[in-house]
Amino acid sequence: MASTTLLMTTTARLRDRRADVARRGTATRSVRASLVSLAGLIGGQVANQSGEEVGRVVDVVARLYGPDPYPPVTGLIIRIGRRRAFLAASAVDTVGAGHVLLRTSRVDLRDYVRRPGEVLLARDVMDHQLVDVDGVQVTRAADLYLAPLADRTVLVGVDVSLPTLLRRLGPRRWQVRPTPDRVLDWQSVAPFGEQATHGPAEVRLRASRSALHRLRPADLADILEDLGRHERQQLLGWLEPEHAADALEEMEPAELENLLREAAPEHAARLVDEMEPDEAADALRDLEPGEREALLTRMPADEAAELRALLTHREGTAGGAMTTVLVTARPEQTIAQVRAELAAQAEHRTEIDAVAVLDSEGRVTGDLPLFDLAVAEDTALVGDLVEWLAQFAPPVTVRPDSRLSEAADQLVAARASSLLVVDDAGRPLGRILADDILDALLPERGRLHFRRFLT
Length: 455
What we know:
Oligomer: single chain
Largest sheet: 7 strands, mixed
Helix content: 40-55%
Shape: elongated
Radius of gyration: 30 Å
């Protein structure tokens, strides 16, 4: 009885699975049948209600940066003899595989004038670079797919496959046939193009940031390194300066140097100003003196003075690799007060792994790791915690002119993740982190971004 029940259950499951596969296959065929290849549409016939040819499709106009998740087609550019005219989408009845049918025999053909937010899909997007946000990579649009939605035609996907490029080289009957084997949903891409930025800034940013803000700084750095000059300047323009600066800190030094040279000086100065001090100093150190000064003079005076001070330290020394982002405390403060100061420095979380404790003269008496601060009682005094930790080891410090190899030896011996850099009087100048030492001592390693490395 049990075996019969099991057999019936298994048979039912197999039947349901076959039915589900059949439904999905039918849906897939239906979706594929509704897709229109932009590559196949270009050069296609435009006919009126009587079936008479009016002209040929030159390009498709879409409002790329509007509020719609899938950009609507606003019109066509068609060739009539030697003239190129604009045909509004309201005059189009159907857009099919390689042809367009109009609603009326009489058409008001106007010269095309680009309006804010409109993009020529064949000229500005197809064969251009774009960012696959889900796949976190830069790719090219081999074809774009249009589809009917309610009473209009919209842009729904981007084909990035090699077979599609080969299809476009074949005869006309191949060109009009979609081959959506590797298609990206339009909502998962950020397009670029010389003319793709004519929309109002607030609309353009809303459309692009919705996808790009999900990317980690290291992923954005990979994308910036792969983009062409114009495209990556557009991408930087889409990002908040703080977000862009985080990505710049992850870039290869040579690529970052090129990027800063390509950008307008005011924009480059703003980006460097948003970077962590040690990373900003490294970026400026790679520029020519005139280029460096051009950026520094465009930065706020306090930040520029701080970076100039960092640049006085030689490369390959503790002072040349340190960050000036420091959180300090006094022995009489409570642990709760120090935690509040740490919370106020949340934007610098990657640069802070300990709190320097100073005496009344500003000299270092202790260096409290964040773990010890996390487990201590709120009401405990900083001085008591420093005294308790002193029985294990004194705070480890280095001079700004110490070689990085010496700093690395001290870091390993202390089993610490950072070292304080102090002056002759023992006052803190900055902190050098373990990852900064690695970056400096192993330049041939570069900044390993695991996605790219594994790929």
